[in-house]
Protein backbone atom coordinates (compact mmCIF):
# COMPACT_ATOMS: atom_id res chain seq x y z
CA UNK A 1 0.00 0.00 0.00
CA UNK A 2 1.35 3.38 -0.94
CA UNK A 3 1.05 6.39 1.36
CA UNK A 4 -1.87 7.66 -0.70
CA UNK A 5 -3.67 4.34 -0.18
CA UNK A 6 -3.61 4.69 3.60
CA UNK A 7 -6.99 5.10 5.29
CA UNK A 8 -7.46 7.70 8.05
CA UNK A 9 -8.73 4.83 10.21
CA UNK A 10 -5.26 3.20 9.98
CA UNK A 11 -3.98 5.78 12.46
CA UNK A 12 -6.52 4.54 14.99
CA UNK A 13 -5.56 0.86 14.68
CA UNK A 14 -3.16 -0.66 17.31
CA UNK A 15 0.49 -0.93 16.24
CA UNK A 16 2.93 -3.76 17.17
CA UNK A 17 4.45 -3.39 20.63
CA UNK A 18 7.98 -4.70 21.39
CA UNK A 19 9.98 -5.05 24.57
CA UNK A 20 13.34 -3.26 24.95
CA UNK A 21 15.05 -6.62 24.46
CA UNK A 22 13.28 -7.08 21.12
CA UNK A 23 14.47 -3.68 19.98
CA UNK A 24 18.08 -4.35 20.94
CA UNK A 25 19.04 -5.00 17.36
CA UNK A 26 17.75 -4.55 13.85
CA UNK A 27 17.74 -8.30 13.41
CA UNK A 28 15.40 -8.77 16.38
CA UNK A 29 12.99 -6.29 14.84
CA UNK A 30 13.00 -7.91 11.37
CA UNK A 31 13.46 -11.60 11.96
CA UNK A 32 9.75 -12.36 12.06
CA UNK A 33 6.98 -13.01 14.56
CA UNK A 34 8.07 -13.45 18.14
CA UNK A 35 6.51 -16.45 19.87
CA UNK A 36 4.36 -15.44 22.83
CA UNK A 37 1.91 -17.08 25.14
CA UNK A 38 -1.86 -16.49 24.82
CA UNK A 39 -2.03 -14.55 28.11
CA UNK A 40 0.81 -12.28 26.97
CA UNK A 41 -0.99 -11.64 23.69
CA UNK A 42 -4.26 -10.67 25.42
CA UNK A 43 -2.38 -8.34 27.77
CA UNK A 44 -0.52 -6.83 24.86
CA UNK A 45 -3.68 -6.12 22.81
CA UNK A 46 -5.55 -4.85 25.86
CA UNK A 47 -2.76 -2.39 26.62
CA UNK A 48 -2.70 -1.19 23.05
CA UNK A 49 -6.45 -0.54 23.03
CA UNK A 50 -6.18 1.41 26.29
CA UNK A 51 -3.57 3.59 24.61
CA UNK A 52 -5.81 4.57 21.69
CA UNK A 53 -6.94 8.18 21.51
CA UNK A 54 -10.29 8.76 23.26
CA UNK A 55 -11.89 9.73 19.95
CA UNK A 56 -11.12 6.26 18.57
CA UNK A 57 -13.18 4.46 21.17
CA UNK A 58 -16.92 3.90 20.84
CA UNK A 59 -18.71 7.05 21.97
CA UNK A 60 -22.30 7.46 23.10
CA UNK A 61 -24.16 10.11 21.15
CA UNK A 62 -24.74 13.29 23.14
CA UNK A 63 -28.16 13.42 24.79
CA UNK A 64 -30.50 16.06 23.37
CA UNK A 65 -30.97 19.08 25.62
CA UNK A 66 -34.36 20.53 26.48
CA UNK A 67 -34.25 24.23 27.35
CA UNK A 68 -36.83 25.56 29.83
CA UNK A 69 -37.42 29.32 29.86
CA UNK A 70 -39.62 30.85 32.56
CA UNK A 71 -40.45 34.21 34.08
CA UNK A 72 -40.94 32.50 37.45
CA UNK A 73 -38.79 30.61 39.95
CA UNK A 74 -37.91 26.92 40.08
CA UNK A 75 -40.07 26.47 43.17
CA UNK A 76 -43.12 28.11 41.60
CA UNK A 77 -42.85 25.91 38.50
CA UNK A 78 -42.07 22.59 40.17
CA UNK A 79 -45.54 21.17 39.46
CA UNK A 80 -45.33 22.23 35.80
CA UNK A 81 -41.94 20.62 35.31
CA UNK A 82 -43.16 17.39 36.97
CA UNK A 83 -46.18 17.23 34.65
CA UNK A 84 -43.98 17.97 31.63
CA UNK A 85 -41.65 15.11 32.61
CA UNK A 86 -44.63 12.75 32.75
CA UNK A 87 -45.65 13.62 29.21
CA UNK A 88 -42.07 13.32 28.03
CA UNK A 89 -41.88 9.91 29.69
CA UNK A 90 -44.93 8.75 27.74
CA UNK A 91 -42.92 9.46 24.60
CA UNK A 92 -40.02 7.34 25.85
CA UNK A 93 -37.74 10.09 27.17
CA UNK A 94 -36.32 10.22 30.69
CA UNK A 95 -33.91 12.77 32.15
CA UNK A 96 -30.41 11.37 32.57
CA UNK A 97 -31.13 8.38 30.32
CA UNK A 98 -31.75 9.81 26.86
CA UNK A 99 -32.44 13.50 27.46
CA UNK A 100 -31.08 16.33 29.62
CA UNK A 101 -32.42 19.70 30.80
CA UNK A 102 -31.19 23.30 30.83
CA UNK A 103 -33.33 25.56 33.05
CA UNK A 104 -33.37 29.35 32.95
CA UNK A 105 -35.42 31.20 35.58
CA UNK A 106 -36.05 34.95 35.24
CA UNK A 107 -37.36 35.03 38.83
CA UNK A 108 -40.10 37.49 37.85
CA UNK A 109 -37.69 39.89 36.15
CA UNK A 110 -39.04 39.83 32.60
CA UNK A 111 -36.22 42.03 31.34
CA UNK A 112 -33.88 39.05 31.84
CA UNK A 113 -35.74 36.82 29.37
CA UNK A 114 -33.89 37.84 26.17
CA UNK A 115 -30.48 37.12 27.73
CA UNK A 116 -31.68 33.83 29.21
CA UNK A 117 -33.14 32.78 25.85
CA UNK A 118 -29.80 33.58 24.19
CA UNK A 119 -28.05 31.35 26.75
CA UNK A 120 -30.28 28.43 25.80
CA UNK A 121 -29.55 28.98 22.11
CA UNK A 122 -25.82 29.07 22.87
CA UNK A 123 -26.18 25.79 24.79
CA UNK A 124 -27.51 24.24 21.54
CA UNK A 125 -30.71 22.90 23.04
CA UNK A 126 -32.90 20.72 20.82
CA UNK A 127 -36.13 22.44 21.85
CA UNK A 128 -37.13 25.40 24.04
CA UNK A 129 -40.13 25.22 26.37
CA UNK A 130 -41.46 28.76 26.86
CA UNK A 131 -43.55 28.00 29.91
CA UNK A 132 -45.33 31.30 30.60
CA UNK A 133 -47.28 32.23 27.52
CA UNK A 134 -46.46 34.58 24.65
CA UNK A 135 -44.47 36.87 26.95
CA UNK A 136 -41.92 34.06 27.27
CA UNK A 137 -42.28 32.71 23.74
CA UNK A 138 -41.44 35.99 22.03
CA UNK A 139 -37.93 36.35 23.57
CA UNK A 140 -37.25 32.72 22.64
CA UNK A 141 -38.36 33.27 19.05
CA UNK A 142 -36.34 36.48 18.85
CA UNK A 143 -33.27 34.48 19.87
CA UNK A 144 -33.66 31.69 17.29
CA UNK A 145 -35.43 30.91 14.04
CA UNK A 146 -34.07 27.37 13.92
CA UNK A 147 -34.63 25.76 17.34
CA UNK A 148 -38.24 24.55 17.88
CA UNK A 149 -40.17 26.48 20.55
CA UNK A 150 -43.22 25.17 22.42
CA UNK A 151 -45.17 27.56 24.57
CA UNK A 152 -48.02 27.00 27.00
CA UNK A 153 -50.71 29.65 27.18
CA UNK A 154 -54.19 30.47 28.33
CA UNK A 155 -54.74 32.57 25.22
CA UNK A 156 -55.23 32.18 21.50
CA UNK A 157 -51.91 31.40 19.74
CA UNK A 158 -53.26 32.59 16.38
CA UNK A 159 -54.41 35.88 17.91
CA UNK A 160 -50.98 36.16 19.56
CA UNK A 161 -49.59 36.18 16.02
CA UNK A 162 -47.14 33.38 16.81
CA UNK A 163 -48.66 30.47 14.85
CA UNK A 164 -50.17 30.29 11.37
CA UNK A 165 -53.27 28.39 12.44
CA UNK A 166 -54.51 25.95 15.07
CA UNK A 167 -53.88 23.14 12.57
CA UNK A 168 -50.19 23.90 12.06
CA UNK A 169 -47.75 26.19 13.82
CA UNK A 170 -45.61 27.21 10.88
CA UNK A 171 -42.10 28.52 11.45
CA UNK A 172 -40.37 27.08 14.51
CA UNK A 173 -43.17 27.32 17.06
CA UNK A 174 -46.22 25.44 18.31
CA UNK A 175 -48.34 25.71 21.46
CA UNK A 176 -50.63 24.15 24.03
CA UNK A 177 -53.51 26.45 25.01
CA UNK A 178 -55.85 26.36 28.03
CA UNK A 179 -58.46 28.47 26.20
CA UNK A 180 -58.73 31.34 28.70
CA UNK A 181 -60.88 33.31 26.23
CA UNK A 182 -63.66 30.78 26.86
CA UNK A 183 -62.83 29.76 30.43
CA UNK A 184 -62.52 33.15 32.19
CA UNK A 185 -66.07 34.25 31.21
CA UNK A 186 -67.37 30.87 32.36
CA UNK A 187 -65.50 31.28 35.65
CA UNK A 188 -67.10 34.69 36.14
CA UNK A 189 -70.56 33.25 35.42
CA UNK A 190 -70.00 30.48 37.99
CA UNK A 191 -68.87 33.03 40.58
CA UNK A 192 -72.01 35.06 39.93
CA UNK A 193 -74.15 31.94 40.27
CA UNK A 194 -72.54 31.13 43.62
CA UNK A 195 -72.88 34.70 44.91
CA UNK A 196 -75.96 36.11 43.13
CA UNK A 197 -76.30 39.11 45.48
CA UNK A 198 -72.89 40.48 44.49
CA UNK A 199 -73.07 43.57 42.27
CA UNK A 200 -69.36 44.29 41.81
CA UNK A 201 -66.37 42.14 40.92
CA UNK A 202 -62.72 43.16 41.25
CA UNK A 203 -60.39 41.54 38.73
CA UNK A 204 -56.77 40.96 39.63
CA UNK A 205 -54.58 41.17 36.54
CA UNK A 206 -50.87 41.57 35.89
CA UNK A 207 -50.24 44.99 34.36
CA UNK A 208 -46.71 43.90 33.39
CA UNK A 209 -47.88 40.87 31.44
CA UNK A 210 -48.15 41.43 27.67
CA UNK A 211 -51.16 40.26 25.70
CA UNK A 212 -53.66 39.43 28.46
CA UNK A 213 -56.17 36.96 27.10
CA UNK A 214 -59.01 37.59 27.16
CA UNK A 215 -58.55 41.37 27.26
CA UNK A 216 -60.14 43.27 30.13
CA UNK A 217 -62.61 44.84 27.70
CA UNK A 218 -64.07 41.44 26.86
CA UNK A 219 -64.43 40.50 30.53
CA UNK A 220 -66.13 43.84 31.20
CA UNK A 221 -68.65 43.03 28.46
CA UNK A 222 -69.40 39.66 30.05
CA UNK A 223 -69.75 41.31 33.47
CA UNK A 224 -72.22 43.89 32.13
CA UNK A 225 -74.29 41.11 30.57
CA UNK A 226 -74.50 39.51 34.02
CA UNK A 227 -75.45 42.82 35.64
CA UNK A 228 -72.07 43.22 37.30
CA UNK A 229 -69.60 46.09 37.54
CA UNK A 230 -66.01 45.00 36.86
CA UNK A 231 -63.23 46.91 38.63
CA UNK A 232 -59.67 46.21 37.39
CA UNK A 233 -57.06 45.65 40.12
CA UNK A 234 -53.52 45.72 38.66
CA UNK A 235 -50.90 43.67 40.52
CA UNK A 236 -47.63 42.28 39.22
CA UNK A 237 -45.34 42.49 42.25
CA UNK A 238 -45.59 41.53 45.91
CA UNK A 239 -46.07 45.17 46.88
CA UNK A 240 -48.71 45.89 44.22
CA UNK A 241 -50.55 42.69 45.14
CA UNK A 242 -50.72 43.76 48.79
CA UNK A 243 -51.89 47.23 47.71
CA UNK A 244 -54.56 45.79 45.42
CA UNK A 245 -55.93 43.49 48.12
CA UNK A 246 -55.93 46.34 50.65
CA UNK A 247 -57.78 48.60 48.21
CA UNK A 248 -60.27 45.82 47.52
CA UNK A 249 -60.83 45.26 51.23
CA UNK A 250 -61.27 48.97 52.00
CA UNK A 251 -63.28 50.19 49.00
CA UNK A 252 -65.16 47.17 47.69
CA UNK A 253 -66.96 45.74 50.70
CA UNK A 254 -69.33 43.01 49.65
CA UNK A 255 -67.73 42.55 46.21
CA UNK A 256 -66.34 39.36 44.70
CA UNK A 257 -62.87 38.77 43.27
CA UNK A 258 -61.90 37.25 39.93
CA UNK A 259 -58.22 36.36 39.41
CA UNK A 260 -56.91 36.32 35.84
CA UNK A 261 -54.68 33.63 34.37
CA UNK A 262 -51.07 34.72 34.86
CA UNK A 263 -47.79 33.12 35.93
CA UNK A 264 -47.41 35.69 38.74
CA UNK A 265 -50.71 34.64 40.32
CA UNK A 266 -50.10 30.98 39.56
CA UNK A 267 -47.01 31.04 41.76
CA UNK A 268 -49.16 32.46 44.59
CA UNK A 269 -52.27 30.33 44.14
CA UNK A 270 -52.14 28.92 47.68
CA UNK A 271 -51.36 32.33 49.19
CA UNK A 272 -54.27 33.86 47.27
CA UNK A 273 -56.64 31.18 48.50
CA UNK A 274 -55.66 31.84 52.11
CA UNK A 275 -55.84 35.60 51.53
CA UNK A 276 -59.38 35.57 50.14
CA UNK A 277 -60.56 33.37 53.01
CA UNK A 278 -58.97 35.69 55.56
CA UNK A 279 -60.65 38.71 53.98
CA UNK A 280 -63.94 36.79 53.64
CA UNK A 281 -64.12 37.35 49.87
CA UNK A 282 -65.95 35.12 47.39
CA UNK A 283 -63.24 34.57 44.79
CA UNK A 284 -62.58 32.45 41.71
CA UNK A 285 -59.32 31.38 40.11
CA UNK A 286 -58.04 28.77 37.71
CA UNK A 287 -56.18 26.23 39.83
CA UNK A 288 -57.28 23.52 42.29
CA UNK A 289 -54.69 24.57 44.91
CA UNK A 290 -56.49 27.92 45.16
CA UNK A 291 -59.73 26.25 46.26
CA UNK A 292 -58.01 23.75 48.54
CA UNK A 293 -56.27 26.69 50.29
CA UNK A 294 -59.52 28.52 51.06
CA UNK A 295 -60.63 30.07 47.75
CA UNK A 296 -64.31 29.63 46.97
CA UNK A 297 -64.10 28.39 43.41
CA UNK A 298 -61.55 26.98 40.96
CA UNK A 299 -62.42 26.34 37.35
CA UNK A 300 -60.20 25.82 34.33
CA UNK A 301 -58.27 23.42 32.19
CA UNK A 302 -56.10 21.06 34.20
CA UNK A 303 -52.67 22.65 34.53
CA UNK A 304 -51.10 19.23 34.99
CA UNK A 305 -52.71 17.93 31.84
CA UNK A 306 -51.62 21.04 29.88
CA UNK A 307 -47.96 20.55 30.77
CA UNK A 308 -48.20 16.82 30.17
CA UNK A 309 -49.34 17.75 26.65
CA UNK A 310 -46.33 20.08 26.31
CA UNK A 311 -44.17 17.06 27.19
CA UNK A 312 -45.87 14.99 24.49
CA UNK A 313 -45.24 17.74 21.93
CA UNK A 314 -41.57 17.93 22.93
CA UNK A 315 -41.26 14.16 22.54
CA UNK A 316 -42.68 14.33 19.03
CA UNK A 317 -40.13 16.98 18.09
CA UNK A 318 -37.27 14.92 19.57
CA UNK A 319 -38.45 11.99 17.46
CA UNK A 320 -38.01 14.12 14.37
CA UNK A 321 -41.46 15.53 13.58
CA UNK A 322 -41.23 19.05 12.08
CA UNK A 323 -42.43 21.67 14.56
CA UNK A 324 -43.96 23.68 11.69
CA UNK A 325 -46.40 20.84 11.01
CA UNK A 326 -47.55 20.27 14.59
CA UNK A 327 -51.07 21.41 15.44
CA UNK A 328 -51.76 23.55 18.48
CA UNK A 329 -53.03 21.24 21.23
CA UNK A 330 -56.01 21.97 23.46
CA UNK A 331 -56.49 20.09 26.75
CA UNK A 332 -59.59 17.95 27.09
CA UNK A 333 -59.78 17.94 30.87
CA UNK A 334 -61.45 20.79 32.76
CA UNK A 335 -61.89 20.88 36.52
CA UNK A 336 -64.53 22.55 38.70
CA UNK A 337 -63.71 22.61 42.41
CA UNK A 338 -65.89 24.21 45.07
CA UNK A 339 -64.85 24.85 48.66
CA UNK A 340 -68.07 24.19 50.59
CA UNK A 341 -66.45 25.15 53.89
CA UNK A 342 -65.58 28.59 52.50
CA UNK A 343 -69.09 28.94 51.05
CA UNK A 344 -70.56 28.36 54.51
CA UNK A 345 -68.16 30.92 56.03
CA UNK A 346 -69.43 33.42 53.41
CA UNK A 347 -73.08 32.50 54.12
CA UNK A 348 -73.50 31.29 50.56
CA UNK A 349 -75.73 28.44 49.47
CA UNK A 350 -74.14 26.39 46.70
CA UNK A 351 -76.74 25.54 44.03
CA UNK A 352 -77.38 21.87 43.37
CA UNK A 353 -76.46 22.43 39.71
CA UNK A 354 -72.91 23.42 40.69
CA UNK A 355 -72.56 20.67 43.29
CA UNK A 356 -73.70 18.13 40.74
CA UNK A 357 -71.21 19.21 38.10
CA UNK A 358 -68.24 19.76 40.43
CA UNK A 359 -65.23 17.47 40.03
CA UNK A 360 -64.43 17.99 43.71
CA UNK A 361 -66.28 19.49 46.68
CA UNK A 362 -64.12 20.47 49.65
CA UNK A 363 -65.98 20.13 52.95
Core attributes:
363 residues; alpha/beta; Rossmann fold; 2 domains; seven-stranded mixed β-sheet; five-stranded parallel β-sheet; 15 helices; disordered N terminus
Mean pLDDT: 83
Tell me the radius of gyration.
30 Å
Q: What structural category arises from helix and sheet content?
A: alpha/beta
First-residue to last-residue Cα separation: 87 Å
Q: Mind summarizing the main beta sheet?
A: 7 strands, mixed
Query: Looking across the biggest beta sheet, what order are the strands in?
Result: 7-6-8-9-10-11-12
The CATH topology label of the largest domain is Rossmann fold
Descriptive report:
The structure is a single chain. The protein has helices at residues 26-30, 38-50, 78-90, 113-122, 134-143, 157-160, 180-194, 216-225, 238-251, 263-266, 269-278, 288-292, 303-318, 340-345, 352-357, and strands spanning 65-70, 100-105, 127-130, 149-153, 173-177, 200-205, 229-234, 256-259, 283-285, 297-301, 334-339, 360-362. The strands form two sheets. Strands 7-6-8-9-10-11-12 form a seven-stranded mixed beta sheet, with helices on both faces. The N and C termini lie far apart (87 Å). It folds into two domains: 65-178 and 304-325, 3-Layer(aba) Sandwich (Rossmann fold); 180-301 and 334-362, Rossmann fold, CATH 3.40.50. Strand 6 (200-205), helix 8 (216-225) and strand 7 form a beta-alpha-beta unit. The longest helix has 16 residues, at 303-318. The protein has 15 helices and twelve strands.
